[in-house]
Amino acid sequence: MFRSKKLIAFFVLLVTASFSARGQDTAIQNWKFESKKTGEGKFELSFSGTISGGWQVYAPNQIVGDVKTTELQFPDSSIIQEGDFIVEGTPDKINSVIFENTEVDVFENTVKWKAIIIIKGTVPAKLQGTLLYTFGRNSDSSYYPSTIVPFVILLEGGAQAASIKIPSIDVENPVNPCGDDSTKGKSLITIFLLGILYGLIALLTPCVFPMIPVTVTFFTKKSTDRTSGVRNAALYGLFIFLIYILITVPFHVASKSISPQIFNKISTDATVNLVFFGVFVVFALSFFGLFEITLPSRFANKMDSKSGLGNIGGIFFMAATLTIVSFSCTGPLLGTLLVDVVDQGAWPLTVGAAGFGIALGLPFALFAMFPNWLQSLPKSGGWMTDVKVVLGFLELALAIKFFSNADLVKQWGLLKRELFIGLWILISLLIVLYLLGKLRFKHSSLVKKFSFVRICFIILFASVTLYLLPGLTNTKWADLKLISGFPPPRSYSFYKQDKTDLFQPMHNDYAGALAKAKAENKPLLIDFTGWACVNCRRMEDKVWPNKTVDSLMRNEFIVVSLYVDEKGKLPLAEQTVETLSNGAERSIVSVGDKWSVFQEENFGATSQPQYAILSPDEIALTKTKYYTPNDGKFIKWLECGLDAFKKTRK
Description:
- It is a single chain.
- This protein is α+β, with helices and mostly antiparallel strands.
- The chain has four domains: 31-154, Immunoglobulin-like (Sandwich); 204-280 and 291-378, no CATH class; 417-483; 506-648, Glutaredoxin (3-Layer(aba) Sandwich).
- It is built from 19 helices and 18 strands.
- The protein has helices at 12-24, 188-203, 211-222, 226-247, 249-254, 262-267, 270-287, 297-305, 312-325, 327-339, 346-369, 382-410, 417-436, 452-468, 510-520, 534-543, 547-555, 591-603, 631-648, and strands at residues 32-39, 42-50, 56-58, 63-64, 67-68, 70-73, 79-87, 92-96, 102-107, 110-119, 126-137, 142-154, 506-507, 524-529, 558-563, 576-579, 585-588, 610-614.
- The strands form five sheets. Strands 3, 6, 8, 9, 11 and 12 form a six-stranded antiparallel beta sheet that branches. A four-stranded antiparallel beta sheet has the order 1-2-10-7, with no helix packed on it. It has a four-stranded mixed beta sheet with strand order 13-15-14-18, with helices on both faces.
- The longest helix is centred in the middle third of the chain and has 29 residues, at 382-410.
- The radius of gyration is 29 Å and the shape is globular.
- The two termini are 51 Å apart.
């Protein structure tokens, strides 16, 4: 039910803050990196710099506190450091107060050390690596181990990787001007309204709804008069709104210094997806009553001590407390809203969060102004427990999607399409059994009567169960178009697929596809896609099977799918640092790195799916096309590309 794509992009805030803080406490600001070829595939790397700020840099070849003081890391196992670091100059010996007066070697003015490396296979023109060094200050017990310093060193005689930028591609001035002008996305008004909708849903969750009468009553009774009570409650609602706005501020700040591809990289990282799989499983178990998730007592007491009504800060802390403790309910809903717009920039995120915050904060203010309305609210009782349990099951479904993202990106083959659908069927069936009273948890009450709402939800989830069942088969009914994009694709299956039934583009082989287009004199259709891309799967499930689309793609085009989240590493000779059109430098190590930069540099986008049509001599035949669930529009665009191709052949 919830979309998981790019939810974890919000950790950009933490990552940015971490690097920012570390950057301010670096002992050597301007490192100098050099290399000298000493043999076939053998190089001497030199690292030097001037120490500033009164810091002390720990000399290499020491282990202090069970950590190496200096270390080199490379993105490829074919690069090996031979022996220890070669240190130039004589370090000073000090008794470290941090490690109980252990004697360590440090430099206090300048550093220079060398390392011998051996490269097996083809030598790249640019060597990428990471230097980790240790520095500190004995006078104030400062200590910073494993400080990260990325570097790029030119290697003599190395093979130069081909440039990713193709000058002949000009998607702004194609042969035929059909296609999309820019990345298609929801309007700000639509995003704002969706934010309000999701906020209203969050308002009904067991983490928020019971707080409305409690909080409003608290404000009205504790205030000196009704006017101050209304003012304080309104301020409380305003602060809830502002807190959700503040969540998006780091994106406005970070957008100036980070790559637009960072959201895709974070969201498709297997480790991050597995972490969120675990988080949502824990949330679900909590909703089932196995345990309670609460704030640490010290933090909770601190928040309570600041929540007095005597100052504005106290009201803000009350709003912050509600926002934090309700995250297990509001987090999945807010994430569902924002993951779809994160590629559109920072402002859509802010607008969506604003709508969400208004929907959550406004009721507190309104009920304080009109306290008689509280009598019309349903009492939070057994129905809230039912909401909590159902929400727990839905969070399990979301957790499975996170695990599926990691499985698809890594191609482990652990969660094939049929197993994914089977687990969703089981979850939907368990919801039905719970609502029927056949499944109970320790905090559940007996189902004495079936209300109209309960019956509606029983019918809904029973229908979902029946709808999903054909997804376990290998028949034409297994497409499940209503949820296309959420399960793994049909090709990621326990069943052996008939290649004639499912169209299979060339996989991550642009050069091969281009050569084939030249040999067969056909236009090249590029599909920028991703393993964890929901809308990509929807296009493949809903649009590609159309008879006309299928025929055109099979017979009139050479089609290649380029996966921007492919984690496999490129051959060492192709690993490089690309200087982009805007002057920024981008490290290219994995297959996905290459295709994401290729897409950004030549087609001006970072979101998927994106489709482009080129002639065999790499001329843009049309503008690109983005997510287009309408068969007719996609066919018209393909035919426009064929018409442009014919023009170039006259």
